Amino acid sequence: MKAMILAGGLSTRLYPLTKLVPKPLVPVAGVPNAVHLLRYLKAYGFDEVAINVHYLADAIVAALGDGSEFGVKLHYSYEPELLGSAGGVKKIESFFDDEPFVVIGCDEVTDMRLDALLDFHRERRAVATIALVECEEVDQYGVVVLDRESKIVGFQEKPAKGTERSRLANTGVYVFSPEIFRHIPSRRFYDFGNQVFPSLQAAGERFYGFGAQGAYWSDIGTPKEYRRASYDVVRGVVQIPQTNANGIDPSARLGERVRISGPVRLGPQVRVGDGVWIEGPCILDEGVNVEDGARLERAIVWRAATVGARAELRDTVVGTRYFVAPETTLENVLVADG
Fold it and tell me: What does residue 170 show for φ and ψ, rounded to 5 degrees?
């Protein structure tokens, strides 16, 4: 089976973290989220996966290779100019065969059952199916309204609290049948949410919403959701295949009088100095160095970064190779070179 990961965007909402790290390589529990998605897709039988690339494309190719490490055959679609979510899929129409296929954004962290989603789509002979999750607050999401047959009859984009017509959020996980290509023009920027989906609804096409009951889902494209998903992985709220989500790697080196409480992930070659206090959930990626007397609370530190002596981090994400100066206090910020 075939699938596509949408990865062409710039992820500006995570700046400055993503100025030097392309969106597909944003780490969740120390592993690029695109790798998590490839393993996730493979677990449901998707052995050929396409990914569109634009910003820092060479870094993405170097990290993911041909996909064989993750059990898939990976195809790259280079976009010198961004084509939008639907335009990017249309560009590689020839990649897909005559069977339904999955499209998923590289920002998604989820454990939803793709087999159940595909069965739902096939049973209804749908042209398009959107996977949905029920959320208590939907003011930051695209909301989908269904009829009694689960056919999509309306949309709201980030409705103000109290005005929502539904609590079903669009997850960015889609199943399409080949007929979808009739609704996407060639060689131009075109978007699923703003253009394709409204036209499907207006045309009365077989367009459905699948309620992914009990599924975990997060869109890590915002700082708040990125932290939430990362902490949920370390806490064990959501399971990611083939990922050591918490604990201390055997190669990590801890100094004297180190205090660790709560769920943490200390990756390979992490070095923690004397008198450091780490209060989870915390994630220190490979090669991170935390110097003497530093204090970390609910922090995420990307690969090879350094936290200086007696620095204090709370609700903060530190980018790759960044140096936090000694005795610095950072709270609820993103810091990175760029």
Answer: -70, 120
Q: Are 135 and 62 in contact (CB under 8 A)?
A: no
Domains of the chain: 2-235 (3.90.550.10), 247-335 (2.160.10.10)
Provide the token pair at 202. Answer: 């207006």
Listed as own residue / partner, the contacts of 253-262 with beta carbons closer than 8 Å and 24 or more positions apart are 255/292
pLDDT in tens, 177-207: 999 999 999 999 999 999 999 999 889 999 9
CB of 11 closer than 8 Å to CB of 56:
no
Tokens at 135, concatenated: 């959320």
Report the 10 Å Cβ neighbour count for 259. Answer: 10
Q: Residue 216 carries which side chain, given as an amino acid letter? A: Y
- Biggest CA pair distance of the chain: 67
From residue 238, how far is each of 82, 218, 228, 235 by CA, in Å?
A: 32, 10, 11, 8
Over the stretch 313-322, which tens digit does the pLDDT of each residue have? 999 999 999 9
The dihedral built from the CA positions of residue 54, 56, 59 and 60, taken in this order, carries a sign that is: negative
Q: Are the C-beta atoms of 151 and 208 separated by less than 8 Å?
A: yes
